[in-house]
Amino acid sequence: xxxxxxxxxxxxxxxxxxxxxxxxxxxxxxxxxxxxxxxxxxxxxxxxxxxxxxxxxxxxxxxxxxxxxxxxxxxxxxxxxxxxxxxxxxxxxxxxxxxxxxxxxxxxxxxxxxxxxxxxxxxxxxxxxxxxxxxxxxxxxxxxxxxxxxxxxxxxxxxxxxxxxxxxxxxxx
Length: 173
Description:
The chain has 4 helices and 7 strands, in the order βααβββαβαββ. The protein has 173 residues and is an alpha+beta fold.
């Protein structure tokens, strides 16, 4: 597996990233097709999922990426915003903010998420990495803990009853 750092998603990979994103749309809470972007604050109710997360994709594709490649085929991606100002636990910090991470279902369980995070850590200039997910996303939380991220903030019931938004951060040397 090769991991490629891209400051901007090149057109040659855009359709493959879109395919993987669309396949995973409903796995996110809330679905990506109900969001207007990658940094949206209000994640509970309101918007209705459409059949197509096109708005989310168009915002995301303007970000930087780490791609997991098998040959020239994209099998996973991590999108992020370098030097992003994010509020966690009432504090504003500037970190590389991982907005989206998806591995094609056929390639899950093979360490690709860890590989993409490691490539990110090696390539970025920021001295911390932050991300958010939902409290029931146990697979991603397990990886974050394994990669030594710490829980930085919890927004109780932010995504619905019993589903918290959780922010994780990792300081880099």
